[in-house]
């Protein structure tokens, strides 16, 4: 707080000036004040104290919002370390016992020699904050913060007494922080003997506009120092505004006692923008902004910075990562990193990828880059692995003024509180088919209850057997002979939700088809989804009906070749049933079924799996006439499971 550090020294100087002295800090005598205080006799001190007051009250508003944003009922009564090694402890009065911050809840924050960056002060004592209204996301909140029981910069014993009303409204492209006094607000210190400054009719608001990367401050107030008989008002007549991280390049403030006794504080543009002007009658003074304000006025409120620049139209740099809390719990799907720049960003084609940090060679996941005003958003185009750490490649962006800047790699940790696992079965369908979708293996590490929702996002008339169940089947209208996409949305009952889109491929009716789904890590299918039918492959089938074996072999030849071998247990005939615990053909045990799926010059040494014959008929020559079989196989018995189907001269359903 600037006036906490310098304000009372300036007040003493104002006293000297009021008695005919000057604003020089070299004066040492203290002369009794005159009865009538004039700001034109004390232009510099009156101006600096007014500017300092504006910023200091906005700092309190930012402190209130920081307390609300960081509220966590799990931290109740637990001592936490501050950046300087001090201690902070938060306790909560949860009036509705829902373990969520909501209306009328009270947060008490106790500081023990704890440095608070938003105030640039070390605090001792307790602050009480009461929330009077809020929405569920805590993006629209208001409340009261009482600072009466805390000491700022304890070596000076500075006390700020009173309660301030605060309000925050955060929207995708803007943020507003407002503060007002409730009753009497006073500041006392013993640094220059016990003095009290009273603040009245305080009302300030700061608007942060992300579309053009600017801040804008409006407001007014009154300052009263009874011991020195100093009393004057001030008002921002033209908003103090500029770009984040830069001194104001627009704006006017008036300090006055009467219409005739006033001084005007105004900003500069390019030349001398690090200073402001004070006009008092026929005299003009210039002072640096840093003499009056610490920097939170021109910083983005959620990421204060001391890196302040004079205004230039070609300034262009990263201001802050928006919503930094997402970095440690990034959604596995649907999440985006957002970066705020100091100027609007030119709409252009920018490229980067997400890299999985713990995997070599690095898995590269493309990212979609969107520009909206001064915000650059990065969204991964594929679902990330829960619990894993990722970085993205550093990339360059350009401002609308053609200045360039870099957005440097940032680490994210993907949230694993909800891990969606689903099985799409064959992943294909045809007319009058009923594909089955199964998300029952979804994992919830934290939460109350898994809630499922299957959604026809294209509104084509998909009918789900149960749209709110983990497992569902569906059918598609007869006249829709195209691929379909359905959305699975899962939440954990605590406002954490993941959605993923699932594609099912339309397969035209054909009597001969081979299709398999090979997961990543499967050696035979090499992680691909492959469909071959009469349009691109030749299907042949053979049979060995030996004395102790009944065997069928299916060969599919196209751009690549594939073979499925199936054998019944010794002494049995293959029939329409499910064969479990099959091992690699032809090396299976006598009483076990045999199975082997190979192709494209790849085969297993050891395998296990199962197959189900849905249709099997023979012609007059005892040759296979029709065959429909579903199968699955794990190569080396530990690799991921390949799932497939073959239809030979068969119209049996695919699902």
Low-pLDDT runs of 5+ residues are 1-34
Across the major sheet, the strand order is: 1-2-3-4-5-6-7-8-9-10-11-12-13-14
Based on CA atoms alone, the radius of gyration comes out at: 36 Å
Q: End-to-end span in angstroms?
A: 69 Å
The percentage helix is: under 10%
Q: For the report, how would you describe the main beta sheet?
A: 14 strands, antiparallel
Description:
Mean pLDDT is 87; it is low at 1-34. The strands form seven sheets. This protein has a 14-stranded antiparallel β-sheet with strand order 1-2-3-4-5-6-7-8-9-10-11-12-13-14. A ten-stranded mixed β-sheet has the order 34-33-42-41-40-38-39-37-36-35, with no helix packed on it. It has a seven-stranded antiparallel β-sheet with strand order 15-16-19-18-17-20-23, with no helix packed on it. Helices cover 7% and strands 47% of the residues. The two termini are 69 Å apart. It has two helices and 42 strands. The chain is mainly β and 655 residues long. α1 runs antiparallel to α2 (43-69). A hairpin with a 4-residue loop joins β9 (214-225) and β10 (230-243).
């Amino acid at each position: 707080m600037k006036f906490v550090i310098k304000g009372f020294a300036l007040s003493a100087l104002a006293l000297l000036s009021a008695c005919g002295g000057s604003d020089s800090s070299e004066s040492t005598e203290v002369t009794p004040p005159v009865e009538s205080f004039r700001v034109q006799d004390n232009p510099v001190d009156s101006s600096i104290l007014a500017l300092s007051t504006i910023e200091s009250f906005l700092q309190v508003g930012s402190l209130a919002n920081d307390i609300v944003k960081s509220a966590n009922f799990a931290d109740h009564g637990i001592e936490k370390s501050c950046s300087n090694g001090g201690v902070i402890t938060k306790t909560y009065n949860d009036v509705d016992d829902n373990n969520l911050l909501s209306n009328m809840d009270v947060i008490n924050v106790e500081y023990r020699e704890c440095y608070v960056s938003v105030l640039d002060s070390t605090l001792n004592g307790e602050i009480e904050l009461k929330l009077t209204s809020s929405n569920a996301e805590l993006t629209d909140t208001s409340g009261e913060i009482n600072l009466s029981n805390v000491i700022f910069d304890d070596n000076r014993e500075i006390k700020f007494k009173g309660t301030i009303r605060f309000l925050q409204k955060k929207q995708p492209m803007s943020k507003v922080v407002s503060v007002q006094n409730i009753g009497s607000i006073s500041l006392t210190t013993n640094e220059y003997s016990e003095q009290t400054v009273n603040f009245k009719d305080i009302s300030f608001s700061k608007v942060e506009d992300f579309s053009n990367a600017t801040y804008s401050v409006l407001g007014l107030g009154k300052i009263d120092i009874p011991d020195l008989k100093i009393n004057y008002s001030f008002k921002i007549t033209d908003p103090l505004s500029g770009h984040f991280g830069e001194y104001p390049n627009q704006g006017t403030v008036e300090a006055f006692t009467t219409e005739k006794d006033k001084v005007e504080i105004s900003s500069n543009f390019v030349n001398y923008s690090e200073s402001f002007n004070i006009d008092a009658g026929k005299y003009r003074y210039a002072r640096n902004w840093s003499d009056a304000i610490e920097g939170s006025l021109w910083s983005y409120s959620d990421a204060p910075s001391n890196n302040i620049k004079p205004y230039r139209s070609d300034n262009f740099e990263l201001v802050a990562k928006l919503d930094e809390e997402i970095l440690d719990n990034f959604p596995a799907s649907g999440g985006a990193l957002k970066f705020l720049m100091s100027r609007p960003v030119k709409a252009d084609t920018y490229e980067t990828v997400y890299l999985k940090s713990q995997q070599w060679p690095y898995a590269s996941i493309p990212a979609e880059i969107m520009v909206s005003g001064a915000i650059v958003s990065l969204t991964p185009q594929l679902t990330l692995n829960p619990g894993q750490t990722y970085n993205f490649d550093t990339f360059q962006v350009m401002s609308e003024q053609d200045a360039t800047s870099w957005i440097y790699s940032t680490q994210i940790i993907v949230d694993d509180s909800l891990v969606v696992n689903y099985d799409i079965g064959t992943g294909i369908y045809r007319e009058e088919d009923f594909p089955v979708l199964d998300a029952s293996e979804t994992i919830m590490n934290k939460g109350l209850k898994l809630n499922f929702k299957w959604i026809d996002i294209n509104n084509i008339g998909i009918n789900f057997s149960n749209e709110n169940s983990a497992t569902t089947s569906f059918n598609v209208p007869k006249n829709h002979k195209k691929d379909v996409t359905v959305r699975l949305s899962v939440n954990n009952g605590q406002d954490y939700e993941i959605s993923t889109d699932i594609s099912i491929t339309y397969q035209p009716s054909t009597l001969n088809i081979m299709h398999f789904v090979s997961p990543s890590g499967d050696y035979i299918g090499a992680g691909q989804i492959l469909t071959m039918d009469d349009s691109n492959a030749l299907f042949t089938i053979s049979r060995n009906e030996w004395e102790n074996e009944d065997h069928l072999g299916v060969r599919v030849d196209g751009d690549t070749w594939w073979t499925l071998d199936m054998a019944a247990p010794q002494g049995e005939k293959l029939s329409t049933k499910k064969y479990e615990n099959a091992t690699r053909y032809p090396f299976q045990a006598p009483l076990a079924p045999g199975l082997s799926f190979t192709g494209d010059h790849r085969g297993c040494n050891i395998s296990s799996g199962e197959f189900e014959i849905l249709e099997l008929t023979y012609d007059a020559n005892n040759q296979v006439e029709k065959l429909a079989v579903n199968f699955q196989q794990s190569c080396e018995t530990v690799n991921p499971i390949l799932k497939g189907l073959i239809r030979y001269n068969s119209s049996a359903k695919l699902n």
